[in-house]
Specification:
The structure is a homodimer. Chain A has about 350 residues and is α+β, with helices and mostly antiparallel strands. Chain A is built from 10 helices and 12 strands. In chain A, the strands form 3 sheets. A 7-stranded mixed beta sheet of chain A has the order 2-3-4-11-5-6-7. In chain A, strands 9-8-10 form a 3-stranded antiparallel beta sheet, with no helix packed on it. Chain A is globular and about 50 Å long. Chains A and B meet through strand 3, strand 4, strand 7, helix 7 and helix 8 of A and strand 3, strand 4, strand 7, helix 7 and helix 8 of B.
Chain lengths: ~350, ~350
C-alpha cells in the first residue's frame, strides 16, 4: 500500500490523540515518526505505533507527561520525561539544549524516565536548522553482547551527529553501535532470509546466520563483529551511549533498561527511571563564521562524493544522503507500507474507533 | 631493553629541550608520550620522537609556538596551535575547555594548526581528574578509504570519551575509527606476519592480508571492514572526527591533512592550517551529584565485568582496563623498548649531543 504523507500524518496524529496526548504532543510525535517513514527508515516509523499503544495500555507510557528540568547549569541540564513518549520528551530536551547554546555557545541535556525516541536524526536535525551542530543518542533495551560475552547487556544504542552544510544537504551520521540494527534482522525474518556472519551470535557465542537466533538466547554483535575486527570499539561506543544517556541522567542502564515490547516485563530491580537519552547543540559560530564552515563542509562533501571508487557505478555515500533521497521521493510519491503494518494500524483504528487507512 | 619511567622521562624531556621547547612544554610533551608508553600503547609514545624531530627539522613543527585563542564564546573556542607539537597544543585546548566547564557547565574547543597529539586518552583524562567527562579527538594523515572507495581520504581519526568512576578506575573509550590502528599494521610488518582479512584493502579495493599493502596503493578500512558489516558506520565516525576537528576549526581535512612523516610533503593546495583536534569537558555535577554518578558507574562496571562469557577464562574487558594494567606494571617494572626504537632514540641523543639511553 502506498499512502500520502498527509494521510499517514493525520492518521498517526489521530492515534496519539486517541491515547490522550495533547494536540501539540500528538502533532510532534507524528512528525517524528513521519520523518522516519519518509526517510526510508521503516523500522522506526509508524510500524512502531502498535508497540507504543501496547506500552500505553500497560501504563508504561504516559500520554500526558509533565516533563520537568530536575537539575541545571547554564549549559547542562537533566530532564525527567515523566514516562512520556520519547518522541515528545527528546524534542523538549533538544529545545532546551538549543536555548542554552543560543545563550552560551553550547547546550547539553541528559534525559531520564523516557521511552523510545524514534530516529536520533530527527532530534539532531533540530539543532542543524539553527546553524548548530546536533548530537543525539539513546540507550535501548538490551540485545547486544559485549565482546567475549554471550549475555545481552546493551541496546543497539544509536548515536547521531548532524552538521549544517551550504549548497549540500546536512551531513547526518546516524548509526546503531551494533554491527547491524535490529530492524535489518526483522526484515530478514520477514523475508525468510539468512543474515551475514558477523551480525549475530547464538546462545553459545558462535556466529550464526539465522535471523531468529535472538529468540533462542542469541544476541546482536557490536560494530566490528569480533575482537579481531574491532568489536571492542563497537562495545566502547555502545557503552559511551549507555553512560551518557543513563548513568549521567539517572535512567536505567545495561541489562536494567526496560524492554520496548509490552509482553516482556521491566526488571523488578530498576537502577533508575525509564530509558535515557543524551542530546546536545553547539553553535557553529561559536567556533568560526557559519558561512566559512558551510563552504568548507561543502568542499568536504564534494571531495568525498567525487572520490575514486572500486566500482565506478557505486559512488561514495555521504552520511544522510540515502535518507534524504528517500524523503524527496516519498514526499512526492507517497510512503509504501507493508501489509503487516497496514493491518496493525487498522487494528488500532478499530480499537479507537477512528477511520481506517 | 627495559627502562625506568624516570630515566625515559628525563631522556624525552632532554630531546624536547634540545629542539628548543620551553621547560614547561618539554615536561608536558614528555608526560603525554610517557603515559602512552606506560599504558602499553607503544606506537604513540617515544617511538614517535624521531618523527617529531624530523618534522621539526623541516620546520613543519614549531618548538616555540605562540598558542592563541582566535574565536570564543562562554563555552566554545577555536585555538590556533601555531604549528606547535600537538602534545602541548591539545593540553592547552583542554585546559581552556575545563575552565569554561568550571564556569558554565561545559567547554568545547576546536584546534587548528596543530600536529600529532599523542594518545587521545591523555587529554580526555585531564577532564576526568576534575570530575568531568572528557572528550578528545583528532584528525590524522589520510590512510583510510571511505566505504566503496579505494582512495585514502581519512586518517585513523581516533575518538575518546572518558568518565570518572568511584572505586573503579575511569572508563576510557579511546579508539581509532578504522578497523585496525596503523600501529597494529606496523607490528605485523616488523614481525613479518600477515594481518586478518578486513583490516586493509589493496589498490584495487580487494581485501588483503599483506601488512605492506599500504606501500603499493592500498588503504586501511573503516571500522566494520565492509558495507555488509557496517563499514559505512566506521566511515561516518571518521567523518565526524574530521569535521569536528578540522572543518570546524579551520584545519586541513580529508586528503589535505599533512602527512605525519617528513619524507612526504604536505599538499600544495591546503584548505586550512595544520591538522585539527576537538576536545571537550562537561561537569558531571552539571547533570547529577558526582557521588551518585560515580556509584552508578561503579555498578555499571561491576555488572559488565561479571557478565557471563563464552570462554570462562576470558572476562569482558572494560574500556581503559588493559591500559591501566600495563601502566601499573610498567611504572613498577619499567618500560620495554624494542631495539629499533632504542637505536632511533640513541641516534637523536647523538644528534643533540646528549646522554644516550
Amino acid at each position: 500500500m502506498l499512502i500520502s504523507e498527509s494521510a499517514l500524518r493525520a492518521f498517526t496524529q489521530n492515534i496519539f490523540l486517541s491515547m490522550g496526548c495533547s494536540d501539540e504532543h500528538a502533532a510532534l510525535a507524528a512528525d517524528v515518526l513521519l520523518l522516519s517513514d519518509l526517510s526510508g527508515i521503516d523500522s522506526h516509523g509508524v510500524a512502531r505505533l502498535v508497540g507504543y499503544v501496547r506500552l500505553w495500555e500497560k501504563q508504561r507510557i504516559n500520554a500526558k507527561p509533565n516533563i520537568t528540568i530536575v537539575h541545571e547549569t547554564p549549559t547542562t541540564a537533566t530532564v525527567d520525561g515523566d514516562a512520556g513518549l520519547g518522541l515528545v520528551v527528546a524534542p523538549f530536551a533538544m529545545q532546551l539544549a538549543i536555548k542554552k547554546a543560543e545563550l552560551y555557545g553550547s547546550g547539553w541535556v541528559a534525559v531520564r524516565n523516557s521511552n523510545h525516541f524514534g530516529i536520533a536524526g530527527y532530534h539532531a536535525l533540530m539543532a542543524v536548522q539553527k546553524d548548530m551542530i546536533g548530537f543525539a543518542m539513546t540507550n535501548a533495551s538490551p540485545l547486544v553482547s559485549p565482546t567475549f560475552s554471550n549475555e545481552r547487556l546493551l541496546g543497539t544504542n544509536p548515536m547521531c551527529y548532524a552538521f549544517p552544510a551550504g549548497k549540500y544537504p546536512p551531513v547526518v551520521v546516524d548509526m546503531a553501535t551494533s554491527a547491524a540494527a535490529n530492524g535489518k534482522l526483522e526484515i530478514a525474518q520477514r523475508l525468510g532470509k539468512q543474515v551475514p556472519e558477523g551480525w549475530i551470535q547464538d546462545a553459545n557465542g558462535d556466529f550464526t546466520t539465522d535471523p531468529h537466533a535472538l529468540k533462542t538466547g542469541g544476541s546482536l554483535l557490536p560494530l566490528g563483529s569480533d575482537k579481531e575486527h574491532g568489536s571492542h570499539k563497537g562495545f566502547g561506543l555502545g557503552a559511551t551511549v549507555d553512560i551518557l544517556s543513563a548513568v549521567l541522567s539517572g535512567a536505567n542502564y545495561g541489562p536494567w533498561v526496560p524492554p520496548f515490547v509490552a509482553f516482556l516485563e521491566p526488571p523488578t530491580d530498576p537502577v533508575g527511571l525509564g530509558i535515557g537519552h543524551f542530546v546536545g547543540a553547539m553553535r557553529v559560530d561559536g567556533f568560526r563564521p557559519v558561512d566559512e564552515f558551510k563552504s568548507h563542509l561543502d568542499n568536504w562533501v564534494s571531495r568525498f562524493k567525487s572520490s575514486t571508487t572500486v566500482d565506478p557505478d557505486q559512488k561514495v555515500i555521504i552520511p544522510g544522503e540515502p535518507e534524504l533521497a528517500a524523503e524527496t521521493d516519498r514526499r512526492k510519491n507517497g510512503i509504501p507500507l507493508v501489509d503487516a503494518v497496514v493491518n496493525d494500524l487498522n487494528g488500532l483504528a478499530q480499537k479507537f474507533g477512528i477511520k481506517k487507512l
